């Protein structure tokens, strides 16, 4: 009984469970169907919205494409109108060209017709001229008795003689013109080189003075029975002049190197105070060695200044000796440097080797360093020295022929000769032209002082410039300009000078007050 109840309860529970599951399943299905309907409805709404959006986008795209199509159509229409307009212009131009061609054809036809008529007229006149020439030739033959060949020969001979005279006159005229041009160009080159380079020159004498502290030193220099002065003069080869002149002793010699050695040695002896024959021998020997070193250094400095670095040591030493050699009171080393620079500048102006020209100019007077030791003129001595120490042929020939003693074989000799003449004749270079140089400076200043309103005048830069100070109270800026022009005109009329003279007029007003 209990088992039956248990089974019935199990069956009832299972039935209730089944019913409950069915009920739940139906409820879930109902909810799922409701949810499915909502999803479908929502999907349909979204699809409808997207369809509407797509329709709007399609309409917008259609409108945009339509607008672009209309724009393109307008552009094409505009291009078409432009092409039509250009075609119209071209057609008008073609019509004008056709009209011009028709006019030119008419002109050409008219010109051709006239040309044909002129050709016919020229042929007719040519025939008449030939007849007249034949008649004239026959008449001339009858009158002169000459054949055609003889008459032609005589006529050609007359023409040839006349042409020779005209050609000769033409050649002479061109030669004269070329000579004038060459002279003008050479003057310009020389003046340019001279103005670009200006060197200082010293006027040497045959004596040097040595200062002494007191007159008692004169007795010490003379020594007992004159042994000191005799030893000094024998070692140095100079004359020592001791007179009544207070405070100085004079050293005299024509050899400037000996005189310089003697001057330095005597100065050292006076400073040392120990003056006796053995000390004199020691000081003179040391001074002579120092002088040799100084000469070598001077030669090296000259080479460096000109830019030459491959000379033989003996040549360098001889260059240094030229510092103590003078010619017409002109220092030979300074003269050689000036000739070197002038020759280099002229060579560069005419397209030659400036370095080689400077070398020729520097060494052209090298023979003057030993001309008192070797017989002969300094050009020949210098050429032999340069040839011995391996200098180029141009340098040797320039040294031998710069005084035009030889036949000129290369242009560098001419350049050196011209530079040598420029250096020797430049105002102030030599003693014989110093007075003229000073006179010209004085004339320049006198011309300026002769103009009213001028207070001071100064000739500067070797007479190439004139500085003038005018009175600011008596002149104005306009009158100062007139004074400047008047001075320049007066210089042109009254003076003879190379190159140009620059006139500078200065008008200055100064106001000064004193604060108390």
What would the principal axes of the Cα set say about the shape?
A: flat
The major pleated sheet works out as: 3 strands, antiparallel
The helix-and-strand class reads mainly alpha
Number of helices: 14
What is the H/E string?
A: HHEHHEEHHHEEHHHHHHEEHE
The proportion of strand residues reads: 5-15%
Average of per-residue pLDDT values:
80
Q: Which residue ranges are poorly predicted, with pLDDT under 50 across at least 5 consecutive positions?
A: 198-204, 427-432
**Helical percent range?**
over 70%
Rg, nearest Å = 58 Å
The number of distinct β-strands equals 8
Oligomer: single chain
Distance from N terminus to C terminus (CA atoms, Å) equals 155 Å
Enumerate the strands of the largest sheet in spatial order, edge to edge or round the barrel. Answer: 1-3-2
What does it look like?
- Strand 7, helix 14 and strand 8 form a beta-alpha-beta unit.
- The longest helix has 143 residues.
- It is flat, with a radius of gyration of 58 Å.
- About 3% of the residues have low confidence.
- It is mainly alpha-helical.
- Helices cover 71% and strands 7% of the residues.
- It has 14 helices and eight strands.
- It has a three-stranded antiparallel β-sheet, with helices on one face. Strands 6-7-8 form a three-stranded mixed β-sheet, covered by helices on one side.
């Amino acid at each position: 009984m209990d088992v039956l109840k248990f089974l019935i309860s199990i069956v009832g529970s299972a039935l209730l469970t089944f019913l409950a599951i069915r009920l739940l399943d139906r409820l879930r299905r109902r909810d799922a169907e409701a949810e499915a309907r909502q999803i479908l409805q929502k999907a349909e709404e979204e699809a409808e919205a997207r369809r509407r959006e797509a329709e709007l986008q399609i309409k917008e795209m259609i409108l945009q494409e339509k607008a672009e199509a209309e724009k393109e159509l307008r552009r094409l229409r505009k291009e078409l109108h432009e092409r039509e307009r250009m075609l119209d212009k071209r057609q008008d131009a073609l019509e004008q060209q056709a009209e011009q061609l028709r006019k030119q054809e008419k002109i050409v036809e008219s010109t051709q017709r006239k040309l044909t008529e002129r050709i016919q007229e020229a042929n007719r006149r040519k025939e008449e001229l030939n007849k007249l020439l034949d008649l004239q030739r026959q008449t001339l033959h009858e009158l002169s008795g000459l054949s055609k060949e003889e008459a032609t020969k005589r006529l050609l001979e007359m023409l040839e003689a006349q042409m020779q005279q005209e050609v000769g006159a033409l050649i002479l005229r061109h030669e004269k013109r070329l000579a004038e041009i060459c002279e003008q160009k050479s003057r310009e080159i020389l003046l340019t080189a001279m103005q670009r380079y200006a060197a200082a020159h010293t006027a040497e004498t045959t004596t040097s003075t040595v200062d002494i502290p007191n007159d008692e030193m004169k007795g010490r220099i003379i020594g007992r029975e004159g042994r000191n002065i005799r030893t000094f003069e024998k070692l140095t080869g100079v004359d020592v002049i001791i007179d009544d002149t207070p405070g100085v002793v004079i050293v005299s010699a024509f050899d400037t190197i000996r005189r310089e050695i003697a001057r330095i040695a005597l100065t050292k002896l006076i400073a040392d105070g120990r003056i006796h024959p053995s000390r004199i021998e020691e000081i003179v020997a040391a001074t002579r060695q120092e002088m040799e070193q100084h000469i070598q250094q001077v030669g090296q400095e000259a080479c460096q200044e000109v830019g030459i670095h491959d000379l033989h040591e003996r040549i360098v030493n001889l260059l240094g000796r030229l510092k103590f050699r003078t010619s017409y009171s002109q220092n030979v080393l300074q003269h050689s440097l000036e000739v070197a620079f002038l020759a280099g500048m002229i060579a560069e102006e005419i397209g030659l080797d400036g370095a080689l020209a400077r070398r020729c100019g520097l060494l052209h007077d090298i023979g003057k360093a030993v001309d008192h030791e070797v017989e002969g003129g300094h050009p020949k001595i210098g050429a032999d020295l340069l040839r011995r120490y391996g200098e180029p042929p141009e340098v040797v020939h320039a040294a031998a022929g710069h005084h035009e003693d030889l036949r000129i074989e290369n242009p560098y000799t001419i350049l050196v000769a011209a530079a040598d003449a420029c250096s020797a004749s430049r105002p102030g270079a030599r003693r014989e032209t110093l007075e003229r140089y000073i006179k010209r400076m004085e004339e320049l200043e006198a011309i300026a002082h002769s103009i009213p309103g001028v207070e001071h005048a100064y000739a500067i830069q070797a007479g190439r410039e004139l500085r003038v100070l005018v009175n600011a109270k008596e002149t104005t800026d306009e009158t100062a300009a007139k004074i400047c022009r008047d001075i320049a005109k007066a210089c042109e009329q009254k003076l003879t000078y190379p190159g140009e003279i620059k006139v500078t007029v200065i008008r200055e007003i100064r106001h000064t007050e004193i604060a108390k």
